[in-house]
Write a structure and sequence with these properties.
By secondary structure, the protein is α+β, with helices and mostly antiparallel strands. It is 49% helix and 17% strand. The radius of gyration is 50 Å and the shape is rod-shaped.
């Protein structure tokens, strides 16, 4: 089975969506800008070309042919038009070789003669004046008279202030860069906010899924406000949770029933053996039966903790309960040359919970200290305002063993008696069901130190 991928290195759906949508927006804005720029530019050039083409046709009607070269007799309106100061329009009559026969208005030093086109078509040119460097647009029409072909040309100065109005309109598109940039930032911000808000239901479901546990198997992931595409996935997960809950309930009921059914045969077996055999004859058989009976009780306790059964809770003094358990186990400790002492005999720890189950927590911890430490070890019971501490001065617990200390069926390598490794798991479960906590203090200077924090009475 391949190892799980590090979540920190997993691809981000938010980042991918934002990147792709941003790319689409950028390409869309850039494409729209380019289309607008070229369409506007072509439109301006088209209007300029149509304007001077009309002028060519107007001038054509004013041509006078006679014995000499062709010339123009302009009406007063056209004379005034081409006589304006700093005019941007001009005309030329050119000979076949390009010699200027007549001109008026805006003039250029040199423009190449276009290639002749059949059918009397107007030839459009965009050139640069060789002398001034001005950009020029020209419309040229080839004509014939008795002296042969000649050219009628209208020119327009694209650098002129009046023509620059159109150029400024075109250049105004360049000024759109800052607002387009701001628009892009605004659009990307909207994209980020929209994507994040769209993924919020998914994050809520993920948070809900992270809180599922064996004690909360009855909960299901909600589909409210989820995108339609994710609803089948959540429904499939909920269906899997239904099957897991059903299987787990069957397993839990089987364990509880099996443990419950074993209690009576074990008690009967022990009673019959004790009635027929002496203590010497029983030997290790009695110890084995006792260990088996304890395992059954632990399994029953686990089944109760994992069920939805509500335990009766009431205020009690946790430290006083711990002292009672220590007194009960004192003979067992002395028999194995261990010493149980109370560092704070007059302390009081008000708690709210089930005193009977709490006794089991203290009993498991003290018995573990007796089993896992060598003879001569002292076991100390102490308390403060809200916690009870059970510590010993034995060899302690290695970091490797501490990592799995509260897992079921885990036993240390130095255990001095047979057991199933359920004591600490049960103790931790009891504390959590009562709203308290149990943890191993890894910072203890010597030995093993367990801290129990209790919920205060209401």
């Amino acid at each position: 089975m391949p190892p799980d991928r590090d979540p920190a290195r997993a691809p981000s759906l938010l980042r991918a969506l934002v990147a792709r949508l941003t790319l689409v927006v950028v390409l869309g804005l850039a494409g729209s800008y380019l289309v607008l720029y070229f369409e506007f530019r072509d439109g301006l050039w088209g209007l300029e070309g149509q304007s001077i083409a009309v002028q060519v046709q107007n001038l054509r009607t004013s041509i006078v042919s006679g014995t000499g070269p062709p010339r123009l007799e302009l009406p007063l309106s056209l004379q005034a038009f081409y006589a304006q100061t700093n005019t941007l329009n001009g005309y030329q009559i050119l000979g076949p070789d390009g010699t200027v026969l007549e001109s008026g208005g805006f003039s250029v030093s040199y423009l190449p003669v276009p290639v002749s086109q059949p059918g009397g078509q107007i030839i459009m040119q965009r050139e640069t004046d060789a002398l001034s460097g001005n950009r020029i647009m020209a419309a040229t029409l080839q004509l014939d008279d008795v002296h042969g072909p000649y050219w009628l040309r209208v020119v327009r100065n694209l650098e002129d202030a009046e023509s620059l109005v159109a150029q400024l309109l075109l250049g105004a598109l360049d000024e759109l860069y800052p607002p387009v940039t701001l628009l892009l930032i605004a659009v990307v911000s909207v994209v980020v906010v929209t994507v994040r808000s769209s993924l919020r239901p998914l994050r809520a479901v993920s948070q809900q899924a992270s809180m599922l546990s064996l004690s909360r198997l009855d909960e299901r992931l909600h589909t409210q406000n989820l995108p339609r595409e994710l609803v089948p996935l959540v429904q499939a997960v909920n269906a899997s949770l239904d099957r897991l809950e059903a299987d787990y309930r069957v397993q839990r009921e089987f364990t509880a029933n099996a443990a419950h059914e074993l209690r009576t045969p074990l008690a009967t077996l022990r009673a019959r053996l004790e009635s027929r055999l002496s203590a010497q004859e029983l030997g290790d058989i009695a110890l084995d039966i006792e260990q088996l009976a304890r395992l059954v009780e632990q399994l029953l306790c686990l089944a109760r903790l994992e069920s939805q059964e509500q335990f009766q809770c009431a205020p009690f003094d946790a430290h006083a309960v711990a002292l009672e358990v220590a007194r009960e186990l004192a003979p067992v400790a002395l028999e194995s040359e261990h010493y149980v002492t109370a560092a704070t005999p007059d302390a009081s720890v008000p708690a709210h919970g089930n005193a009977t189950l709490t006794r089991l927590v203290f009993r498991n911890l003290i018995e573990n200290a007796i089993q896992y430490t060598p003879a001569g070890t002292s076991i100390t019971l102490s308390a403060d305002a809200a916690t009870v501490i059970i510590a010993d001065d034995g060899p302690g617990i290695s970091p490797q063993a501490a990592a799995s200390l509260f897992e079921r069926f885990r036993r240390g390598p130095n255990a001095s008696s047979v057991g199933a490794g359920l004591g600490l798991a049960i103790a931790k479960g009891i504390m959590e069901r009562q709203g308290g906590r149990l943890w191993f203090d890894a910072n203890a200077a010597r030995g093993a130190r367990f801290v129990m924090e209790f919920r205060a009475p209401m």
